[in-house]
Specification:
The protein has 199 residues and is an alpha+beta fold. The protein contains 6 helices and 7 strands, in the order E-E-H-E-E-E-E-E-H-H-H-H-H.
Length: 199
């Protein structure tokens, strides 16, 4: 268990993915400065109820630890950072400072990682390559299946609540099954492969 500062947002950060943020509130400017100075992590959590600038927000209990991958002083005077998602975590308890910054005692959740994509989900690699090419991205060839899933979840036009649900699933194979069903619903794939149908 460890204690980290929290950054509640109305979006989901996934492990192995990045998120661009504009920082303007003093509590988060101080938090980011401390994280950069100490090379430490903070936690990104999805807001269930409330606003990003509020102090009494209702947040989900599972989020993603993050580091500051890049930063810039923007022309509009705000601090721009790129947060890199690292590990999933579960909140055990929280405390809030006088400046409104919340700290959480968290448990890092181990990833049920499958290095190779099961045969019935090989099409997900092709789909990721297709989407990446459209966006001018180059997919790393040494990605685990877990990383491939997170990349797809990040790039696909999925509802935020579904992204959160997928983040909370502990098993990589179970995450793949639910994503597979969603791809069918969205019409991204037109049929259920026989192997996948037996899951």
């Amino acid at each position: 268990m460890t204690e980290i500062p929290l950054f509640p947002l109305k979006t989901v950060l996934l492990p192995c993915n990045t998120l661009g943020l504009k920082i303007f509130e003093p509590r988060y400017l101080d938090m980011i400065a401390a994280c950069m100075r100490e090379d430490s992590t903070f936690g990104v959590v999805l807001i269930h109820k409330g606003e990003e600038t509020g102090v009494d927000t209702d947040i989900y209990s599972v989020g993603t630890t993050a580091t500051v991958n890049d930063w810039e002083n923007r022309a509009d005077g705000l601090l721009g950072i790129t947060a890199l998602g690292i590990d999933r975590f579960e909140i055990l308890s929280t405390r809030t400072q006088h400046d409104g910054l919340t700290f959480a005692e968290v448990k890092i959740l181990e990833e049920s990682n499958t290095q190779e994509a099961p045969e019935q989900f090989h099409y997900m690699l092709e789909l990721l390559d297709h989407i990446s090419a459209q966006e001018g991205r180059i997919r790393k060839t040494d990605q685990s299946f877990s990383e491939i899933l997170y990349q797809l979840i990040y790039l696909l036009p999925l509802e935020t609540a579904l992204k959160q649900r997928l983040l909370e699933i502990p098993d990589c194979a179970d995450r793949a099954v639910i994503l597979h069903a969603e791809l069918i619903r969205l019409g991204v794939i037109q049929y259920v492969k026989p192997e996948a149908a037996n899951e």
